[in-house]
Amino acid sequence: MRLSARAEGVALSITLALDARAKELAASGRDVVNMAVGEPDAPAPAVARAAAVARVESCDVRYTPAAGTPSLRRALAAHVTETRGRHHGPEQIVVCHSGKHALSGACTALFDPGDELLIPQPSWVSYVEIARVTGLVPVPTAGRPDCGPDLEALAAACTPRTRGVLINSPCNPSGYVWSRGELATLVELAERHDLWIVSDEIYRRLVYGERPFVSPVELGDAAAARTVIVDGASKTYAMTGYRIGFAAGPAAAIAGIARVHSQMTGSPNTVSQAAYEAVLAPEPPEVAHMVETYARRRTLLLDGLEALGLRTPVPHGAFYAFPDVSEHLGGAADSGEFCARLLEEQGLVLVPGAAFGAPAHVRLSYALDDERIRVALERLATFIGRA
């Protein structure tokens, strides 16, 4: 029996493929340093774990409303109001199974099949595939050498079929944070072409001082009226396995996402909702500690990459570095072969930039301990001949 063209057209994740090969090597006894996985290495905050256990032990683990429990929606509305500086009510929140679930729901509820979605590059590997799976036409647009958005290229890519733009700030893979001025230009473009702005803000809390995080909704009523925020617990609270997130935006858009989810997936996990609500207010102390830890590791990694002569755009946020390796490929044809050989020869896992729309680059995660970062830098130095 054949599969649908939709399923056949979905690209396999390069990060999962690399992770699988890394596990094979580790199982054979090789020491592998994995800098490919975009996952915090810290445990979830204690209050989240306690809330999850308490909900299980209460035996009150039943279906909730498809849009989430009323108490979590209220808590998230207060959280978004406080962190984005613009009032949001519970009716402007839909709880989702993850940030990715929120994003696919937004793509389904806001757009029709065949609509074009602009995606500034570099971008997270799943954006293009989510757009395709939901019937959209992804339109990657060129970025600048510092991995910031090329707003002229974004404007030039607009056609009568363009219905939205998907941004990610701080950005995976580069850590770039959009400035207020860049967002203002984006909002003007969206108003001119009547576009939705889907703003993936999953790394919002992980910024390091060079540039503050700004959400499009902070730019006024007109911006907020056409913006849907996607966020979740995975990165800020190290709750990746809890699979819980949300979308926030105009009430009609959120109701549309909730209708889609009510038929496709039903209510989010009851235990995870309780855990998420527990971390929202006050913020657990573990979060600030994680940010401080990432900041230290970022400095360690950036200093090491600079010593190797690798040009690396400054990551304002998230927990990735995205150096340009085009002058250090050696015998490799591209960054994909560079990463494959690096894994086999040095036991170091990086992600080739082609997966993110930037083939000259590779992505390194610094969500691992300082000593492993040092080992990774030593292996990278050996590989490119600078040991």
UniProtKB/TrEMBL annotation:
This is Aminotransferase. GO terms for molecular function: pyridoxal phosphate binding; transaminase activity. PROSITE patterns: AA_TRANSFER_CLASS_1. Residues 31-380 form the Aminotransferase class I/classII large domain. Its EC number is 2.6.1.-. It holds the Pfam family Aminotran_1_2. InterPro entries: Aminotransferase_I/II_large, AspAT/PAT-like, NHTrfase_class1_PyrdxlP-BS, PyrdxlP-dep_Trfase, PyrdxlP-dep_Trfase_major, PyrdxlP-dep_Trfase_small. The keyword Transferase applies. GO terms for biological process: amino acid metabolic process.
